[in-house]
Amino acid sequence: MDLGLKGKVALVAAASRGLGRAVAEELAAEGAGLVICSRSAETINQAAHEIVQATGAEVHALEADVSNAAAVAHLVRAGIERFGHIDILVTNSGGPPAGTFESFSQQHWEAATRLLLFSAVELARNVLPGMKELRWGRILNVTSIAVKQPVENLMLSNSLRAAVTGFARTLANEVATFGITVNNIMPGYTRTERVEELSRMMADKERISPEEFVARWEREIPMRRLGEPREFAALAAFLVSERASYITGTSIPVDGGWIRALM
User: Fold this and answer.
1) Which residues neighbour 206 within 8 Å (Cβ) at sequence distance 6 or greater?
2) Hey, is 143 helix, strand or coil?
3) Where in the chain does DSSP place strands (E)?
4) What is the pLDDT of residues 201-259, one digit of tens each?
5) Exposed, middle or buried: residue 48 (CB in 10 Å: 0-12, 13-18, 19+)?
């Protein structure tokens, strides 16, 4: 299937590893140019080198903290200077700390809000003028299954990824007449560095091995396994493609059936 991504330019945030890296690789393989970022210049430059070697795509890598509005503005400006336009935005970031309500201060909440909600808002704010001018664009927010079914001990993530969903659903209606779609993709338990770190932390708390803790997750998943980043990236590539031009304002899980809700 030709997704119509040749000649398009995608900005993928937090793309040095995990889901962001998988999405960047998939889009590059489909012929898109890339603007990618992470908080580490070393890791994002290494990721860019490996993507170029594997796909031959044109990749512009920058160090950027997406929780910082000025850094986001610079990132988008640099991407437009390099390619002339940005057609696709994939918002993504690291996750906030795990914990219960009483374990977090106001400062924790403010930092998590900048990381999860404001990053998506500022990235969209900076790319939308160009997308409106071209009358074509795709915004895809990486959220979480926690949006539909809260995950125990993830108070910050459960709360703020839901806020991103409300923002995206409202924005989708506001920009639809410009040929711009806005969707959310909800990863379940996927074999990434972030999930491995979380499993180690939770296992230490319960004084069991990480393998035992992951096995508990797998028993909750109808497919009885964690997802692979490439499986997530395949749907992401479709949602930002020409083929998905009539899909907007939706949130789609990639979770092996973990969410029990009907809708």
Assistant:
1) 213
2) coil
3) 9-12, 33-38, 59-63, 88-91, 137-142, 180-187, 251-254
4) 778 888 888 888 888 889 999 999 999 999 999 999 999 999 999 999 999 999 999 99
5) buried
